[in-house]
Design a protein that fits this description.
FAD/NAD(P)-binding domain; 7-stranded mixed sheet; 16 helices; Guanine Nucleotide Dissociation Inhibitor, domain 2
């Protein structure tokens, strides 16, 4: 390890391990510092006997973009991307809708056939979603005041609905609560009920899947992380594991390096933080170095919900049962009541993932692994150590209802609470998505990659464009571009792809 680098990256989540090899490939000296014993953050898998579990990353959007990124970095041969032809199954209170990953026309048609009396309204709703997705994909991460009028005229739907919740748009199209829940089912992936969820974020996620496809990484998402770390090290970059960063060194309102645990100081021309934004600014930087206006804006942002997860394995033949790799479940047609139940001492709506439907290498032959996730409060009103067994039992029972035969063939079960997520990620109160996905926290309303401290940048879910594996990766690309600009790197080193949203 040197005593100075061009760039130091704090943390090794997807934003970090995307930005770092891009910067190293551009000829910069790069050090990534990770407190854990392995890289990846939420993308790091864990093993229990013969089983491999991804705690947070499951189906990933846009194989073409990841193909391009790995090819650009020269490590396309380091991992295998497995496409999936299923989107999800919505287990509604008295019916189920199974959605293949197919064309927009077929996706809409399945919903219209399920509710034929509302077919016209359903087609109009999803047409609006698709149009907003297309517009939003061309919206730059930053729009100057000078260009605002021109951009709003070019992208009228994005600007019209930029403050809308999903529920508000559903109400414009439907009066039947059953149709509303069925058409908004995939919003469950974003951690909020439609009454609070950003409509724009919903459309981008849904049509990201439908338009660009989805995949699993063979062996778990950490295999993609390992490929990116290989690219970093081949380009001369370094990864330091098992060491935390105590603080970002700031001199004259500029980041000039970091201080590690134990007191060692390393200088840098730029610092990228992939850590929780609240930790970045309050603990690593310190409020004394930040403008009061910035701190007030930061205080208004709300971290996302946390969750309770059960990691299980079963000998049940889920393929024969016709199970999808991703199943959404609600106890009632009232999505707000289902969400509220998650904070009242029992799981409400739930997601069950069966990654072995796509990647059989994660478990021994003849077995499946199942990850069941329900949103949960950080403060339950009783110690999680006392409540963990009760929650685990409830999720196992609900999973058995969704996946017939699951429990009869159960071979393994373990679980994690919001405290587990907090300990694993250091995210504030175990936040799953960084900031919550409301209209007030969408895209440019999240903290910018560039911070009030010159030379300090953000990457990951706590910055733009938002939550999720794909968006964290995009943030890493954009942050790398900004750092290259700041350090005077040639444009030829930059990664470009038609599915990559523009930075400017």
């Amino acid at each position: 390890m040197q005593d100075s680098y061009d760039v130091i990256v704090v943390g090794s989540g997807m934003g970090a391990v995307t930005a770092a090899p891009l910067l190293a490939r551009a000829g910069l000296s790069v050090l990534v510092v990770e407190r854990a014993q392995a890289p990846g953050g939420y993308a790091h898998a864990f093993r229990r006997g013969p089983y491999v579990f991804d705690p947070a990353v499951h189906s990933i959007v846009d194989p073409s973009l990841f193909d391009g990124l790995l090819e650009h970095l020269g490590v396309r041969d380091q991992c295998t991307l497995l496409p999936t032809d299923r989107l999800y199954k919505a287990a509604l209170p008295d019916m189920a809708i199974d959605l293949p990953l197919t064309t927009s026309e077929e996706f809409v048609g399945i919903h219209a056939n399920a509710f034929p009396r509302h077919a016209h309204e359903i087609r109009a709703f999803f047409e609006l979603c698709e149009r907003i997705h297309r517009e939003a994909h061309t919206l730059p991460a930053k729009v100057s005041l000078r260009d605002l009028d021109a951009v709003s005229q070019r992208l009228p739907l994005v600007f019209r609905y930029r403050k809308s919740t999903l529920a508000e748009v559903l109400d414009e199209h439907f009066s039947d609560e059953r149709v509303k829940l069925a058409c908004s089912a995939m919003g469950l992936l974003l951690g909020l009920p439609p009454s609070r969820l950003s409509f724009q974020t919903f459309t981008q996620m849904l049509y990201g899947y439908i338009g660009n496809g989805a995949f699993y990484v063979q062996g778990g998402a950490e295999e993609l992380v390992h490929a990116l770390v290989t690219a970093l090290e081949r380009a001369g970059g370094e990864l330091l594991l098992g060491t935390g960063v105590e603080r970002v060194l700031v001199e004259d309102r500029r980041a000039v390096g970091v201080e590690l645990e134990g007191g060692e100081r390393i200088r840098a021309g730029a610092v990228i933080s992939n850590a929780d934004a609240l930790q970045t600014f309050h603990r690593l930087v310190g409020a004394e170095h930040l403008p009061a206006r910035f701190l007030r804006g930061l205080a208004r942002l709300q971290p996302s919900v946390s969750g309770f997860s059960v990691y299980a394995a079963t000998r049940a033949d889920l393929c024969a049962a016709g199970t999808s790799h991703m199943v959404f479940s609600w106890p009632s047609w009232d999505s707000d009541a289902a969400y509220a139940a998650s904070f009242g001492g029992r799981p409400g709506s739930m997601i069950a993932y069966v990654p072995t439907m796509v990647d059989s290498t994660l478990a021994p032959p003849g077995e499946h692994i199942v990850c069941s996730i329900a949103f949960a409060p950080y403060d339950l009103g009783a110690p999680w150590a006392e409540e963990k067994g009760r929650y685990e039992e409830m999720l196992l029972a609900e999973t058995d209802r969704l996946l017939p035969g699951f429990r009869d063939g159960l071979t393994f079960a373990d679980s994690g609470t919001p405290l587990t997520l907090e300990r694993f990620s250091l995210n504030h109160r175990g936040a799953i998505y960084g900031w919550e996905n409301t209209p007030e926290h969408t895209a440019s309303k999240r903290p910018s990659h560039a911070t009030p401290i010159d030379g300090l940048y953000l990457a990951g879910q706590w910055t733009q464009p938002g939550a999720g594996f794909l968006r964290a990766t995009v943030s890493g690309v954009h942050t790398a571009q900004l750092v290259m600009q700041g350090l005077g790197c040639a444009d030829g080193a930059r990664f470009a792809h038609p599915n990559l949203p523009p930075l400017h």
